[in-house]
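Module 6 notes. Inverse folding takes a fixed backbone as the condition and produces residue identities as the prediction. Think of it as a translation problem where the source language is geometry and the target language is the twenty amino acids. Below is one complete input and output pair. Work through it position by position during the lab.
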């Protein structure tokens, strides 16, 4: 699976999750078409996603013009963080009603009554 294919699927699934909204909270594993156990985010020259699946790492670098996470000091940033496949993630449009770029953020903790 190529970086381009993974990026295309991510974009399609983020757009589907958002529909007419500017943000949505979704299970992280719904953003890909392949199973994985852990997903790590890292800022650098590009947004680096590392998918851990069955002992194998798949690294994908995404253009900041399409996807990003804020710097690590920003509340909710996923920079340097990892998610389990069932964890929830916030996906949102950087600019309301625009087609991108899309941001990934930590989902708020679930509130139990």
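Target side of the pair, the amino acids:
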């Amino acid at each position: 699976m190529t970086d381009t294919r993974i990026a295309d699927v991510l974009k399609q699934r983020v757009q589907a999750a958002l529909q007419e909204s500017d943000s949505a909270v979704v299970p992280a594993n719904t953003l890909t078409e392949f199973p994985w156990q852990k997903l790590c985010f890292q800022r650098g020259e590009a947004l680096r996603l590392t998918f851990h699946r069955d002992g194998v790492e798949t690294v994908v670098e995404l253009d900041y013009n399409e996807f990003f996470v804020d710097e690590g000091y920003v509340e909710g940033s996923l920079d340097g963080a990892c998610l389990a496949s069932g964890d929830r993630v916030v996906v949102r449009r950087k600019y309301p009603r625009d087609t991108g770029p899309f941001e990934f953020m930590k989902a708020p903790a679930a509130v139990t009554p």
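Reference fact for the lab report: Residues 3-106 form one domain.
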